[in-house]
Write a structure and sequence with these properties.
heterodimer, A: mainly alpha, two-stranded antiparallel sheet, B: mainly alpha, 71% helix
Chain lengths: 209, 138
């Protein structure tokens, strides 16, 4: 999985204030209304894909792509609402935000036994342990986001540590979502480090240099 | 030939018939959800290959009488459940089981054929599919 949100050198204070006071109106509500319907489709496909995997051992490729695009859309809306990126998140499954990178390699085969165990006991060995950690981290994210907001307002720059902490939180929760959506066989690790060198913010910085 | 069809096309064709389980997926016993899912699936896939178009349309057309039948069965079941104090009469199961079996068998056969790359044709929709130039078998 490749997940990264690029930290900007400078953030617009005007956009920050606009998002804070009216973001719910012009970002959250319109996106959530459409995403609600898309999420119904995504959950139907996710349920059906379980049965398809059980019979064929494969996740239908076009369904997989749909799920990735849906997740990408969610991530760019979240990134915008959490003030991690400037600019308005685009509507639609086929669009991307230039600062938000999310991709998942399509697995040719998915383990049927692993999927069945996840379906039956996923709540026990994935949702509960990861949920507890992510729940605690989400409290920290709220505080960090609040402090980050003031930092951007006064300096126009997002402190790197705070920014990376929030990106890590989203990366971690995304890994859990992928695993529970049967889109990967890799159990999500209990850390938020990137998967490989291609997934790190350093690579993006190197590209800029 | 079925063997020459890409795996992805066959999966998409198969998926069209799986829309009949959409109501189960959202845990709402409303047959209309299956129909909506089939409509959405058809319109999102109709511009793909003729093979996928054929199966998506056939799934959608098959979903219309299926939805009507399901509504009838649901109405019947609710009527017994709500007005006869949870006792389902024997006739309900006698009639319902073959209807449900027929629906599942029909959809399963088509889904299986789609996955194999075949174009099983339900005769009721032959003329509609032929008019659209999607029918391979005469």
């Amino acid at each position: 999985m490749t997940f990264n949100i690029q930290r900007q050198d400078q953030y617009s204070r005007g956009e920050l204030l606009l998002r804070t006071f009216f973001g719910w109106l012009y970002i959250l509500i319109p996106h959530m209304i459409i995403l609600l319907f898309v999420s119904i489709a995504a959950s139907i496909l996710s349920f059906l894909s379980f049965w398809v995997i059980m019979f064929t051992g494969r996740y239908p490729e076009s369904w997989f792509e749909f799920q990735v695009k849906f997740m990408r859309w969610n991530i760019r809306v979240n990134a915008s609402i959490y003030n991690l990126v400037d600019g308005y998140p685009k509507f639609g499954l086929d669009h991307e935000h230039e600062g938000v990178e999310f991709d998942v390699t399509y697995p040719e085969n998915i383990s049927r036994s692993s999927v069945l165990i996840r379906f039956l006991f996923g709540w026990l060995y994935v949702i509960i342990p990861h949920g507890i950690v992510l729940g605690l981290l989400s409290i920290a994210v709220v505080f960090v986001n609040f402090i980050g907001w003031w930092a951007v307002l006064f300096t126009g720059s997002y402190p790197k540590g705070m920014f990376d902490f929030q990106v890590s939180f989203f990366r971690w929760s995304q890994r859990v979502s992928l695993y529970m959506a049967y889109m990967t066989d890799t159990y999500p690790p209990f850390h938020a480090e990137p998967d490989g060198p291609e997934d790190s913010s350093e690579r993006l910085l190197d590209d800029q240099v | 030939m079925p063997d020459q069809l890409p795996e992805r096309e066959r999966e998409d064709a198969m998926g069209a018939y799986l829309m009949m389980f959409a109501a189960v997926a959202v845990a709402l016993p409303l047959p209309i959800i299956n129909l909506i899912a089939a409509i959405v699936y058809y319109f999102t896939n109709k511009n793909k290959s003729p093979f996928i178009h054929f199966h998506s349309l056939q799934s959608l057309l098959a979903q219309i009488p299926t939805t009507l039948m399901n509504w009838g069965v649901l109405y019947w079941g609710l009527k017994i459940w709500l007005f006869k104090e949870l006792s389902l009469d024997q006739d309900f199961w006698i009639y319902r089981c073959p209807i449900q079996y027929f629906i599942f068998h029909l959809q399963h056969s088509c889904s299986n054929s789609g996955q194999k790359g075949e174009d099983v044709l339900l005769c009721r929709y032959r003329s509609i599919l032929q008019k659209r130039g999607l029918c391979i078998r005469k």
